[in-house]
Known about the structure:
Helix content of chain B: 25-40%
Oligomer: heterotrimer
Order of helices and strands of chain B: HEHEHEEHEHEHEHEHEHH
Number of helices of chain B: 10
Amino acid sequence: MNNFRVTDRWLAPALGVAAAGSGLILLLVLAFLLREAAPLWGSHAVLGFVLDASWYPLEGQFGMLPMVAASLAAALGALLLAAPLGIISAIFLNFLAPPAVARSYRMMVALLAGIPSVVFGLWGLTVLVPLIARWQPPGASLLAAMMILALMILPTVTLTSASAIAAVPQNLQQGAAALGLTRQGMILRVVLPAARGGITNGILLSGARALGETMAVLMVAGNVVQYPLGLLQPVRVLTANIALEMAYATDAHRAALFASGLLLTLVVMLLAWLAIRANRQVSYV
Amino acid sequence: MRALLPIIRIASASVLLLFWQMSHAATDRLVITGSSTIAPLAAEMAKRFEQQNPGVRVDVQSGGSSRGIADARSGLADIGMASRGLKDSEKDLTPHTIAMDGVGIILHKTNAISVLSDEHIKAIYRGQIKNWKEVGGQDLAITVVNKAEGRSTLELFLHYTGLKNSEIKAQMVIGDNQQGIKSVAANPGAIGYVSIGTAEYEENHGTAIKLISLHGVAATVANVKNGAFPLSRPLNLVTKGAPVGLAKRFVDFALSKAVDDLVEAQFFVPLTH
Amino acid sequence: MSERVFTSAIWLGAGVVTAFFLWLLGDLVWQGAAHLSVSFLLSDTLDSGRSGGIAAILLSTLLILAVALLAAIPLGLMSAVWLTEYTRRDNAWGDAVRMSLDVLAGVPSIVFGLFGNAFFSVYLGLGFSIVSGGLTLACMILPIFIRTSEAGLSAVSDDWRRNAAALGMSRASVLWHVLLPTAAPAIAAGLMLGVGRATAETAALIFTSGYVDRMPTSLLDSGRALAVHIYDLSMNVTGGDQAAYASALVLIILIVFINTGAWALSERWLARKVTFS
Lengths: 285, 273, 277
């Protein structure tokens, strides 16, 4: 009896410390961003983030809004493309695919997750962009960014949704069968709603990933600082901006880039908070 | 739990072994950081230097010109790499030019135009000329490819054309040379500017781009070398003050004739010694 | 919607995904397969990577991955267990940790690289090293790994926990013998996603594990990861395209191996510990 009381006693705090550690990482990252952006606090440059017409750092203009809009548009578009495909893939994996096919499909999706963003970017630049360019130059555009991002976040949506669907208790599905629901009815009306939490989490994580993706978008989006007014117009997202200019930026320019990283993190924080609020609903189970 | 014990033992043993390796501090080590343009060249030079000087380690890291300058200044690196000349605010550092890099204008291979006047180039980049037929080419919309702010190639281009970056109306903004080349190759109506050496190589290997002459001078590496071509930038190793010891030996090595073939292998222009 | 339309729609969706994947893979194979060979895997890098092989780079990549997994798996599993077993649904701390992980997933990779450089390389004094790179990657893997494992653990029916308590098992014992094995498939899925993210990462590693393509002799040496090498060859070095595509193919094969291993391990663990009624 004494044996496992000891183990259990240190188990809880040990786990708590681990979890706290994981949570602490974000605080460290935020502290870092704040420190690097510090030269700008208190100066009028901060107002410039919102008020300046566009981003010409070497001429003192730090207008970030077009890029924020572009980041949000690209991530949203990617989610609109990837979420349905991802959920469909998850349904495919769990219900419709024969076991051997399911194994290979899962392997293929997991593989997609591991392809470097530079490879996606290269493929986008050499294959996708010329295709779009034939329709309307320059080809490097918001649409290209959305498509590449969708491909990149698809594995996350698929695998998390598949796990969530697999976790739905068997008795729910058996109940549905007993009630005479078609398979389509069971999947759409019973399983998906029950797996809602896991699927939403997967989508949120993927959205965050899409917002944070740098390399691939840098290569296919065109990188012109302007509001995303057209799908086929080139845009620059915040992350690509940081990657493009960090290597050559000094002083105020550099601090502004870190400030834009901070801004992006705040946007993600807002989205995450909204998602947690939305997720508070009690599920059917 | 019991099954884990042997695994834990082996894992900790290997981790300890690997960490123990670290206690051998390299007797002579040089750290070079900075421009990603120069990094491949510096890495090859470092390799050859290590071969000729056993026991020495030269670590080359990337990170950008501004990092190279900051690290050289703060001492985090022994030598910095900067793919541009030093600014006035950087006069506390000493540059050593190891190569030159010409900047030439490229068009898509299928573009009928083979020569553009300076005035036309300015107008195209300002967005005043929007179609190739306005300068005697095909009826094709012009896709202007510009470089991201802060890059020395952009500053060179702006200096040569007299434009300000806010005047330029680009359809694509790129970072590295290769991205520029691939972007122009992807778009029949594109115009951009990249390193001449790289463009020459790509042209000779079938990539769908071509170099055009500037101000009547053909854009070739030879013309950069003899000074005839107007647009070129220095590739610099920077040190804080005069280099000493191992850093001096490396800088001398990098400036010598012994590495000319390495410079040319990266399609830069070696200095005349 | 009729059943047949539904089924066709699902198969069509899966088909679209497969088509894109094959398109991408086909392009890689077409461009890079010619450059692949056994010597490519075993020899050292020459001429900035345009000739020679990627032996040192493969080793560096595996070491970085090993460090990242060694750091992320225990920390991640423990955090996931804490989130599932030791917090109630509306617990503020639990929500705080969950939210911070979700936000962490959205931090741009280049910011992670600069953070990793400032924290691990400079502040902790690890310099440009495999350890720095691995630890930075661990930070990036944690969000997806923890969230997926957490989902898997929450899915285990409470009945099992109550049965175990009725049998007088300690919480640690329940965890090890019942809960974790049952959640193994979800944990493996999280692991595969994490490994994918780790191997695909470029920007973060340029600033932490660095650019040196020498064979590493210690974990504190700088080492170039495969993704960094691919980036350098395709974006920085003139004429490196073929080698870049070949390296990408090697990376893909590596991921297949790791993922197959992870999946097989989880199935074994699951099958040995838990049999379903």
